[in-house]
Automatic annotation (TrEMBL):
The keyword RNA-binding does not apply. Gene3D superfamilies: Aspartate Aminotransferase, domain 1, Type I PLP-dependent aspartate aminotransferase-like (Major domain). This is Glutamate/tyrosine decarboxylase-like PLP-dependent enzyme. The keyword Lyase applies.
Length: 477
């Protein structure tokens, strides 16, 4: 019998003798809902404080259908059974992204404070789209944005919003850039170019091409040399060729594949000669600007018109969050504010409405977990944790250099180490990667560069140790 069947349909819940009906049952405070809240918080607490959570692995659809199908019914199965299904079947079928051995793609390693506070963001039902509805939350998020703007050398007037992820952040920034270019051109009495162009490195993240497709603009992918970094000289050629059609130049502040930072300073210097919007995609790597040892790699960043950095990558917050900052937020506001009769009461005010700065309206104040964690531990703890990943990546690269069966593809600049196992084909990497996961040792997927198979470690967790990584390297002998 389900919990639902055991529960009486009406129940007096307080001294005023309000009756819990079928309609109010899910929202009322009753023994049933109290038990659900307690169970969920207890599970969240256990998961957050458990240091032995296995990596886990994906399950085939047939297996999940066999074990977990049929949970949605007219009467419900009750909180206890639904949570047990999640804990025993669904959660183990999800990779543990914050496991120290999760080293693929770009991992995430939220702090305990940030993850715990994410529960509060849900529990308080705060709306983060407008000042009118969420001024306290918006204020705190803006504290984070102001802190990061200072770190990145942007003027005090810079501002923005925390959006869902780097893809939306890049798209929103490029839409603002195009809108700005169109306004400037209109003011000068110039016609719109037939096609608008975004200039980016051939190594830029796929979300730039995705944004261009959504916007129906072209991307000029500039080939980069051996260093992998886009330079001012290469951008100059593209600007000379495409002239007024260029609405933005994108510099990458830490490529996803290699962690390479484009030569932002030489690209930014072109602003003295050309009129273009400089966007820096630092979704993964820009966090490293907080680390004193890596700050120099981002010289020129202070001239960016917009930039992004994803806290869910290397600023230790749970999914999902992307900090989007504009040098001149008024430009973004003009591009993004949605107008409607029912919204006028919000938008006709001078107050800061986060929804005005990106492609979204309703928003969770997803910057709050970072605010809480930063306020709790201080920026110094962030700098130390990021430095730890940088130092570990360098140590791992040095170690790879001592092993004759391995070959480093490039010296790491940030915390991505790409290397080859001499003599291995793509199938060898795939079999090895599967074995690592089957043994629950690590999650390291095959990759490739210039047609040659390789693999890579992307390190963002301070819980990832040198010993764990040398243990993985030993399996490649
Ligand atoms: C450099 C870069 N830009 C953009 C993105 C896209 O970010 P998101 O996955 O949060 O949409 C990524 C993701 O890895 C990235 O590494």
């Amino acid at each position: 019998m389900s919990d639902a069947a055991a529960r009486p349909h009406t129940d007096r819940i307080d001294a005023a003798a309000r009756v819990v009906t079928d309609a109010s049952r899910m929202h009322a405070v009753t023994p049933e809902t109290t038990a659900v809240v307690d169970m969920v918080l207890d599970y969240a607490r256990r998961r957050l404080l458990d240091t032995e959570v296995p990596l886990d692995k994906p399950m085939p659809p047939s297996e999940l259908r066999r074990l977990a199908a049929g949970s949605i019914s007219e009467d419900g199965v009750g909180g206890r059974r639904a949570l047990a299904l999640f804990e025993n079947v669904l959660a183990p079928a999800c990779l543990t992204i914050d496991h120290p051995g999760y080293l693929s793609f770009i991992p995430s390693a939220p702090t305990k404070a940030a993850s715990a506070f994410d529960l509060i963001v849900s529990a308080t039902a705060v709306y983060g789209g407008s000042w009118m509805e969420g001024s306290g939350a918006v204020f705190a998020e803006n504290e984070v944005l102001a802190f990061l703007a200072r770190e990145f050398g942007l003027p005090e007037t810079a501002g923005g919003v925390v959006v869902q992820g780097g893809t939306i952040g890049n798209l929103s920034a490029l839409v603002a850039a195009r809108d700005h270019a169109a306004r400037v051109r209109a003011e000068r009495g110039q016609a719109r170019p037939e096609r608008c162009v975004v200039v980016a490195s051939a190594e830029a993240h796929s979300s730039i091409a995705s944004a261009a497709r959504v916007m129906d603009v072209d991307v000029v992918k500039v080939a980069v040399g051996e260093s992998g970094a886009l330079t001012g000289a290469q951008v100059r050629t593209a600007l000379d060729e495409h002239g007024d059609a260029v609405i933005a130049v994108v510099a990458t502040g830490g490529s996803t594949n290699f962690g390479i930072v484009d030569d932002i300073a030489s690209i930014a210097a072109l602003k003295d000669e050309f009129d273009f919007w400089l966007h820096v995609d630092g979704a993964y790597g820009l966090a490293a600007a907080l680390a004193p040892s890596a700050r120099h790699r981002f010289a020129g960043l202070e001239r960016a018109d917009s930039l992004i950095v994803d806290p869910h990558k290397w600023l230790f917050t749970p999914f999902d969050a992307c900090v989007l900052l504009y040098r001149d937020p008024a430009i973004a506001r003009a591009a993004h504010t949605q107008h409607a009769e029912y919204l006028d009461t919000l938008t006709d005010r001078a107050e800061w409405n986060p929804s005005d700065y990106s492609i979204q309206l309703t928003r969770r104040p997803r910057g709050l977990p970072l605010w809480f964690s930063l306020a709790t531990f201080g920026a110094g703890a962030y700098r130390a944790a990021i430095e730890d990943s940088l130092a570990l990546a360098q140590r791992v690269a040095d170690e790879i250099g001592t092993r004759p069966e391995l070959r480093l593809v490039r010296d790491p600049q940030l915390s991505v180490v790409v290397f080859e196992r001499v003599g291995w084909e793509a199938a060898d990497y795939a079999a090895w990667s599967d074995r690592l996961l089957d043994e629950q040792r690590a999650f390291v997927v095959p990759s490739s560069h210039a047609g040659r198979p390789n693999t890579r470690f992307a390190i963002v967790s301070p819980r990832t140790s040198f010993e764990l990584i040398t243990g993985i390297l030993d399996t490649m002998r």
